[in-house]
Design goal:
Length: about 110
């Protein structure tokens, strides 16, 4: 049962973008819950240059079966040319919480283009 659930990590360039993405993913039943962690400092290489950026981390809880559709939608919503999208399996958790995730992504969910 716990292997059916994942956390998807991403970042956004602003609080407004993070909130817009989070709201859409929950509204569209692709995520049960999205946490927004403010102002993380990211250091990365992009197009041959070292970049320093202030970002908002997006922590998304969903079912494994919806992860690819969620990532497709994330790409549509995101302003970045290459948004971060990392799927981490949940190896366990409170059974009632996992049931809550299932109920909140399956009920009313529809396939998006």
């Amino acid at each position: 049962m716990s292997g059916d659930y994942v956390v998807v990590l991403s970042n956004a360039g602003s609080q407004e973008e993070a909130e817009r993405i989070a709201g859409a993913l929950v509204q569209e039943f692709l995520a049960a819950c999205v946490n927004i962690v403010p102002r993380v400092r990211s250091v990365y290489r992009w197009q041959g240059q070292i970049e320093w950026a202030e970002e908002w981390m997006i922590v998304i809880k969903t079912r494994r079966s919806l992860a690819e559709a969620l990532i497709r939608r994330l790409r549509q919503l995101h302003s970045y040319e290459l948004p971060e999208a990392i799927i981490l399996p949940m190896d366990g958790g409170l059974a009632e919480y996992l049931d809550w995730i299932r109920a909140n992504v399956e009920e009313g969910w529809h396939d998006l283009p």
